[in-house]
Amino acid sequence: MTESSRGGAAPAVRLCDISKRFGAVQANRAVSLAVAPGTVHGLVGENGAGKSTLMAILYGYYHADEGHIEVDGQRVAIASSQQAIALGIGMVHQHFMLVDTLSALDNVMLGAEPAFFLSRAKRQVRQELEALMRDTGLTVRLDATVAELPVGELQRLEILKALYRGARILILDEPTAVLTPQETDQLFEVLRRLRARGTTILLITHKLREVMALCDAVTVMRAGAVIKTCAIGDTSPEDLAESMVGRKVNLGRAGGAAKPQSDTPVLKAEGLTVAGDAGSGVHLLGNASLALRPGEIVGVAGVSGNGQSELLEVLAGMRAPDAGTLHLAGRDFHAAAWLDPRTARDLKLAHVPEDRHALGMVLSFPAWETAALGYHEQAQYRAGPFGLGIDQRHLRAQTATMMEQFDVRPRNADLGSSKFSGGNQQKLILAREIGQHPAVLLVGQPTRGVDIGAIEFIHNQLRRLRDAGCAILLVSSELDEILALADRVVVMNAGRITGELAIDECSEKNLGLLMAASPTHDKTAAEAATAP
Ligand SMILES: Nc1ncnc2c1ncn2[C@@H]1O[C@H](COP(=O)(O)OP(=O)(O)OP(=O)(O)O)[C@@H](O)[C@H]1O
């Protein structure tokens, strides 16, 4: 049941020979795909394979150069997102399209046809939304402002908004990339309920376990073309991985723990504390202490939002703590005179931030500028009288080399940073930071939104850097990633470090116990987790 449908009905969506080119890049090549109504259809493929472009065409954001689209068996023209919505197509993007200062309810009403709401008082809209929430399990606090809502709830709001506007076909672009495992489970529950109500769901994801758990059928894309479409019962994660990448992929551990190359830490932080909102009594980071030695990868495990981001920001010099000290490469810093990012770079501390768009790059800059961002004042990049200018030729050549080494596609140093797919943006940032041969690398969510071939590559790069003597702090919400890479693991919970385990003591079970442990009972929790 991959091509046609349940009960012989026409496909909810049929894409026929869709092609789309951006300059020299052929993003979609004669793509044909049919999605049965009331099913979840996975769309997988390497970064840059053309998945988002294809869905943007279905949602009326881009126009196909060739090919056509059918919805419920009827050929349709979709020239804008408004037309897509009118046809019952909704899309939830990776980056939410919500207004921070407005309430959830106002966000649902914003941007919809005024005539649509003229007939409905706000109170009635609220009642209808509440009924929809009960039916679907999409619970959202309608009166909270968007700024107050956690990421999982924002995503539910986006889905609710799409459904309220009549979406029967829902496109989700990597919906779980930003979710905790618990939020992912909740989302899947909702999606199953929506499917049972007849909604057709197109799901872009890099997580093959999710495809196997949720989808009815899956399409694999590579280099803009469809490699295959099959029913979920006819494939496996290994088979999908091989179809995506064109070779076998190994994401497992490559051996036991590495021994640090010296017992003297290159970075030692003590008592790091960051207070939450005034009067809340909450600590975003509570008395956290940590040491990194050359030649080891220390994994930080924890449910997102438990102080990992603050830890990275403080150690990278992006924010000063309220209390604590830092010893880095022979220098000491105190809360009152904290490290700044430039000094951090001078001391050979590199940082791959969790939020690559906000902190890792300037989206409007070409790739060659992103490839030097933060390091552009180094003498090697300066040119002209008194070194006032930037040596663009050198930078472009260096970017071309980085792109080759890190397989950044397309290999175009002049392309705007925003024009690269998410995974390729990530590879460019990693290439920049690793290229500085750091003594310490802080890395947050290194493979978020990255395809499995690139995950394998990035993992190998991090191991190679570790083996060359770099001390790496790895924050990841993917336990698999921590288990595959780390030599020892610290667990964070409610801003505190609640335990530390050598990698050979780690399992999903005992890490999970520590992640859920009450920080006031640290010892008991740590003991419980390591008990046989
Ligand atoms: N607006 C654009 N201008 C130029 N090139 C673009 C544009 N949008 C996408 N591309 C290129 O088209 C190709 C397909 O990109 P797309 O974002 O569709 O891939 P994807 O499969 O969704 O990747 P990812 O998994 O990384 O999100 C890539 O090479 C990308 O760089």
UniProtKB/TrEMBL annotation:
Keyword Heme recorded: no
Q: Does the keyword Ribonucleoprotein apply?
A: no
A Gene Ontology molecular function term of the record: ATP binding
Signal sequence span is none
Q: Where in the cell is it found?
A: Cell membrane
Alphabetized Pfam families for the sequence: ABC_tran (PF00005)
Segments forming a coiled coil: none
Please give the chief subcellular localization of this protein.
membrane
Query: Which UniProt keywords are given for this protein, alphabetically ordered?
Result: ATP-binding, Cell inner membrane, Cell membrane, Membrane, Nucleotide-binding, Repeat, Sugar transport, Translocase, Transport
* Highest taxon in the source lineage: Bacteria
Q: Which GO terms describe its cellular component?
A: plasma membrane
Domain ABC transporter: residue ranges: 13-248, 267-519
Membrane topology per record = Peripheral membrane protein
- Name the InterPro entries on file: AAA+_ATPase (IPR003593), ABC_carbohydrate_import_ATPase (IPR050107), ABC_transporter-like_ATP-bd (IPR003439), ABC_transporter-like_CS (IPR017871), P-loop_NTPase (IPR027417)
Record's PANTHER family? Answer: CARBOHYDRATE TRANSPORT ATP-BINDING PROTEIN MG119-RELATED, GUANOSINE IMPORT ATP-BINDING PROTEIN NUPO
Q: What is this protein called?
A: Heme ABC transporter ATP-binding protein
Species for this entry: Roseateles aquatilis
